Amino acid sequence: MLTLAHPWLLLVLLPLLGLLWWRWRRPPTPAVLRHPYTALFGPLPVSWRLRLARAVPWFVLAALVLMVVALAQPRRSFTSETVEGEGIDIMIALDISGSMQALDFAPKDRLVAAKDVIREFIAGRPHDRIGLVVFASRAFTQCPLTLDHQVLTGFLDEIEVGLIDDGTAIGLGLATAVGRLRHSEAESRTVILLTDGMNNVPTLEPETAAELAHTLGVRVYTVAIGRDGVAPFPVDTPMGRRVQQIETRIDEDLLKRIAQRTGGIMDRATDPEALQRIFATIDELETSRYEARVTTWHREQLAWFATPALLLLILSGLLREVWLRRLP
Fold first, then answer.
1. Are residues 186 and 117 in the same domain?
2. Which has more confidence, 17 or 95?
3. Which of 38, 79, 224, 298: disulfide with 75, CB 3.0–4.6 Å?
């Protein structure tokens, strides 16, 4: 990155820019030839010497601008960061079933609110590998473990209800996330499971997935999103989209058993603030132990500005004293 050691010196450019504007606004001085009857000569073309003479002041002005930039000491800055310590591998398992469209996080639905908080959580852990699993009737890995959090948030932004057939396969979602941590060599391996429903896909029981996590030493934090009971829900009707009150149920007992079996915690989020507090708590519990040493060095770029300035001054001097020299 190009920076300036003394950027305040660029203030000197203000009068130079004023001079530049004045030179541009001023009409060029016409060539004059004294003769008692100039009509004999007819219209004379502008010679190359005259054009060159008009360009010389611009050369000098450009040289002065370059010299001021050179005095500001331009340089390229390079930074190296050495990170020491063991990181944490975190898989986020996110429910994208149809019930995640409930609007009890108004004005946002449950899924959008969860995505916003997850995005902040990712931004706050730059040294941890984080991955993303989504589940409804099935489960798949949206993004494997990665340190490229820009790519991860891009995949997060693409998530929406309807990517998978409707259903709530909590067991499959948890097992898929745990499977992604099976070969991890990180000191701490964690799954954050977010859901707003009850397991209704019998392909794999959630207790079996929790036992798998316990066996592999994976800690699972479970988050129940939304209210248990009646919640506002958007419904498409022949008259357009309407909001109706629909019954929703969350299996908190199941989520508590999963968390307890794996050494995690279970919590309930009924509004955006509660969801943020839950992720803040998880962030504090899963602490990365890092010691970062940052080294910054600079490579001076003065010559790239001073050399052209010197060449322009030499050129303008040669033009005035040789090709454009005026004789008495």
1. yes
2. 95
3. 298
